[in-house]
Amino acid sequence: MLIDEVEFADDASTTPKAEHTTVNGNSSTPKLLPLSSLSRHPSVGPSEQKKNKPPDTTANLFSVLMSSRKENEAWKEADVVEDRSFRPTKANGGRRKAPFYKVLQGMPIAVDAFKYGAIPGVKAYFLTHAHSDHYTNLSSNWKNGPIYCSEGTANLIVHMLKVDRKWVHSLPMDTPTLIPDTGDVRVTLIEANHCPGSTLFLFEGKQTTNAGDSTFKSPFVGSSQMFRYLHCGDFRASPQHVLHPAVRGKKIDHVYLDTTYLDPRYTFPPQPLVISACADLAKRIASGSSLDEKKPNSMTSWITTSRESKEKEKAKPGRILMVVGTYSIGKERIVKAIAKALHTKVYCDARKAAILRCQSDPELHAMLTKDPLDANVHLVPLGVVTSDKLKPYVDRFNGHFSRAIGFRPTGWTYTPPAGSDSNPSIASVLARVPKNIFSYTDLRPARNSTPQLQMYPVPYSEHSSFLELTCFAMSFQWTKMIATVNVGSESSRGKMSKWVKRWEAERKKKSRDFVVPHRQVDYW
Fold first, then answer.
1. Residues in the chain with pLDDT < 50?
2. Residues 209, 163: Cα–Cα separation, whole Å
3. Cα–Cα distance measured from residue 299 to residue 456, given in angstroms and rounded to the nearest whole number
4. Can you tell me the distance from the alpha carbon of 408 to that of 325, in angstroms, rounded to the nearest whole number?
5. Which spans does this entry mark as compositional bias, Acidic residues (predicted)?
6. What are phi and psi of 79, to 5 degrees?
7. Distance, C-alpha 308 to centroid of its chain
8. Which of 112, 347, 493, 518 has its CA 20 to 30 A from that of 484?
């Protein structure tokens, strides 16, 4: 996570020529050629790298030698500006200063930095997704500059926050696009595998300005070098990210990394397997299929702990209600999987339905119904699926459903197995990949569940697990990782930095094109 140590891109000569097309009705906005044309350009070899050295190699060497000290100073500066006790006044300029990691080095671009107001020198504000901790302070009063994001996110912030459409520019997915007033920086949006509309941003261009509030300036502004920055926002890392044609085979200078679960304790199971397990469990419960009662801790043995309760269940006819907790935006994939398995409609309130219709998901839209009795799956806020709130919700439909099953999907419900290594080697982490499995038998009801009201904690997150972060970091070329989550203390940053250094050391042992073997393209 060094601030000034930069290793330059190795194929600057392959930048394609631009052609003018329309983005959001602006015919003067140039748009780069499709990715299919980029893939035909060969990468530049070592001889070309030598031609691209910065003109002042002495200054370059000095910045590398000083980078460790400057990194620490930059983080201390960030700690000061992120002080939670800060209140805007005339004396401090009426706005909180943006830490260095919110503004791309040498570019007039800020990402997820709306709470800092009008940032000096920034010409383009990017939003990775429509979660409140990323769009803080964005509202109908926004007038600090153009906002760039995916179409889904654009629809959401206009609908939820009433941001004036004139500021919002939706960009196409998987297509390099030139951004106006940024010194010809191009950006490619890549599906983040987080909530609907979420994206990674791959920025490519020269350093042209020292924008932002940080006192630490780049020595490479004005050079002819091309830089690549991959901003991950929030994401669930998968092989699709490193195999994407915009990333594969290229060296990334800076990776702004979602480090929510950068801790060996959080190696929860692959997302697709958990989704499938929830759908399988719901289908088996709804159909009355027998489950494996040989497992003493399985949910089946718990449900049938006595002959009396078993007979009562048989005697009570009726439908079973599946209640799935979700965020305001996110977790919808579990809802869809369960509804498809049960061949039923999905009910949610009008506010949630309006949010869902902002998203480009015709399959989910077709499932929605306004009648709660017309659906065996209800989509509710995650906070409803708790021991004290689920029962009142289900009681509203008393007499219409024989019992209810609640699913509470969140990564924080994951408990590492007993005896887990808290300080594993990278090799041992990668060895876990084929062993990281999950099925419906791994879902266990909460202790306070009853035969009529069962609640299942589901180890499901839309952030990368530690295992996935390691696989991701080991599967492409990069120079520097910059943590963006859990960076509020020197201790936390130190723990994460330790893993980044281990990834870097292990990655150097691999071939340039090494990718951690994966079981499916959507998970390791």
1. 1-66, 293, 295-316
2. 28
3. 9
4. 5
5. 1-10
6. -60, -40
7. 47
8. 518
List, in order of start, the domains of the chain with CATH numbers: 58-83+97-265+466-507 (3.60.15.10), 271-458 (3.40.50.12650)
- Please give the structure tokens belonging to residue 518: 């994966």
Its pTM stands at 0.84
Do 506 and 471 contact (CB within 8 A), yes or no? no
Token representation of residue 80: 């000061």
| Other CB atoms within 10 A of residue 399 CB | 6
475-502 exposure pattern, b = at least 16 Cβ within 10 A, e = fewer: bbbbbbbbbbbebeeeebbeebbebbeb
Question: Residue 307 has which token pair?
Answer: 């002959």
Q: Taking Cα atoms as reference points, which of 185, 190, 269 lies closest to residue 233?
A: 190
Q: What is d(CA 500, CA 346) in angstroms, rounded to the nearest whole number?
A: 42
Give the residues across from 456 on adjacent strands: 407
- Strand ranges in 41-174 using DSSP code E only, listed in sequence order: 109-111, 124-126, 147-149, 168-170
Terminal Cα-to-Cα distance of the chain (whole angstroms): 25
Q: What whole-number distance in Å separates Cα of residue 149 and Cα of residue 167?
A: 11
Which tokens go with 269? 């199971």
Coil, strand or helix at 455: strand
Q: Give the span between the Cα atoms of 443 and 302, in whole angstroms.
A: 12
Backbone phi, then psi, for 480, in 5-degree steps? -145, 135
Q: Which residues pair with 520 in a beta bridge?
A: 523
HSE toward the beta carbon, residue 25, CA cutoff 13 A: 5
Cα(126)–Cα(93) distance, integer angstroms:
23
Q: Which runs of consecutive H residues, i.e. helices, occur in 4-82?
A: 35-38, 46-51, 57-81
CA dist 454 and 286 (Å) reads 13
Q: Is beta strand 199-205 parallel, antiparallel or unpaired with respect to 186-191?
A: antiparallel
- Name every residue whose Cβ is closer than 8 Å to that of residue 349 and which is 6 or more positions away in sequence: none
Sign of CA dihedral 441, 443, 449, 450: negative
At residue 162, the pLDDT reads 98
Q: Measure the CA–CA gap between 199 and 35, rounded to whole angstroms.
A: 17
Q: Report pLDDT for 296.
A: 39
> Going along 162-311, which residue ranges are E strands?
168-170, 177-178, 186-191, 199-205, 227-231, 251-257
* Residue corresponding to tokens 């990775």: 128
- How far apart are alpha carbons 168 and 9 in whole angstroms? 31
Over the stretch 113-155, which tens digit does the pLDDT of each residue have?
999 999 999 999 999 999 999 999 999 999 999 999 999 999 9
CA 507 to chain centre: 23
